[in-house]
Design a protein that fits this description.
Structural class: alpha/beta
Helix content: 40-55%
Number of helices: 13
Shape: globular
Strand order of the largest sheet: 4-3-5-2-1-6
Number of domains: 1
Strand content: 5-15%
Radius of gyration: 19 Å
Distance between the termini: 31 Å
Largest sheet: 6 strands, mixed
Order of helices and strands: HHEEHEHHHHEHHHHHEHE
Number of strands: 6
Length: 303
């Protein structure tokens, strides 16, 4: 689950927040010198920076660098995956109702095995919820249950959702008077999940429950690799393992990266300086944004 949600921005995580009124927030590791990865694409009248992000961070984590701030400060436009503002509760609740609730009268217990329900209850009890709390999830589709459990797990690590890279950069963009644009909408991101096959939805939920039990420190590992600029490590942790689930891999990464590359080509056809901030997993591996750009003869140079 942590691997999968690394590909999606706060808008989808917000669905989990509204589903159970929780807060998203992971922890951080040691405070050595940061060097998160940054790339630059240039032509005769354009500079486009690509920065891989982690959407949810500990507020005490130091991740900004001089080269990052220079690139951001030189840009007139910042482009995010999707809007990070989740203050429009009516909008988010409507999207949750449309995409996250079962509309055929079925319950969660009709779709998952007794063993998975038991594991869900055990996991929820670990967050301080009473036995049988999984009954609260009965109206939700498995994908939204999976995200909500992730939100609860991350909340238990004690950080602040406003410390995520996009939230921080969005504040900087407002202060600098930058134009803010998006590659996707909130609804498009929810549609990625809602269009899953029933089998993929169940895998998403069940794999996430297993990860919480078997590898609760995976988020810390992810953040440490990102902060160090270890793109190969991120590929192995978040991307390579997802390739064993072709449907999820195609929907979460490949299809979206191809669409984004189309948009980046359009940006290059214009002029000016643009800073693009997307989840770090999109900038790692054989199907990364940079690799797809390279296949079109466009070089993204590591800074």
């Amino acid at each position: 689950m942590f691997r999968v949600t690394a590909f999606l921005k706060n808008s989808v995580a917000a669905a989990a927040v509204f589903a159970l009124s929780t807060v998203i927030a992971p922890s951080s590791g040691a405070q050595d010198a940061p060097d998160p990865a940054l790339w630059k694409i240039s032509d005769e009248d354009s500079n486009i920076y690509l920065f891989g992000t982690i959407h949810i961070l500990d507020p005490s984590l130091k991740w900004r660098t001089a080269k990052l701030d220079k690139a951001f400060g030189a840009s007139e436009t910042v482009v995010f995956e999707a809007p990070a503002d989740t203050t429009d509760q009516a909008k988010m609740q409507a999207l949750v109702a449309k995409y996250g609730l079962s509309t055929d009268g079925s319950k969660l217990s009709d779709k998952v095995s007794p063993e998975s329900l038991q594991l869900l209850d055990q996991t929820l009890q670990g967050f301080g919820m009473p036995a049988g709390a999984s009954a609260n999830f009965e109206p939700l589709r498995p994908w939204l249950v999976g995200l909500t459990v992730t939100a609860l797990h991350v909340q238990s690590l004690g950080a602040d959702p406003n410390a995520g890279v996009e939230r921080v950069l969005a504040k900087g963009a407002a202060a600098n008077g930058m134009t803010v644009e998006y590659l996707e909408t909130d609804e498009q991101q929810m549609q990625i999940f809602s269009s899953m096959s029933p089998e993929a939805e169940l895998f998403f939920l069940e794999d996430g429950l297993k990860q919480i039990q078997e590898n609760p420190d995976m988020l810390d590992e992810m953040v440490a690799l990102w902060r160090a600029g270890d793109v190969e490590g991120l590929d192995k942790l978040m991307v390579e393992s997802l390739t064993t689930q072709p449907e999820l891999y195609e929907a979460m990464l490949v299809k979206r990266n191809k669409d984004w590359v189309d948009q980046i080509e359009e940006m290059l056809a214009g002029n000016g300086n643009i800073f693009i901030a997307v989840g770090a997993a999109h900038l790692a591996g054989a199907d990364s944004v940079q690799a797809l750009l390279q296949s079109r003869g466009i070089a993204a140079v590591r800074q």
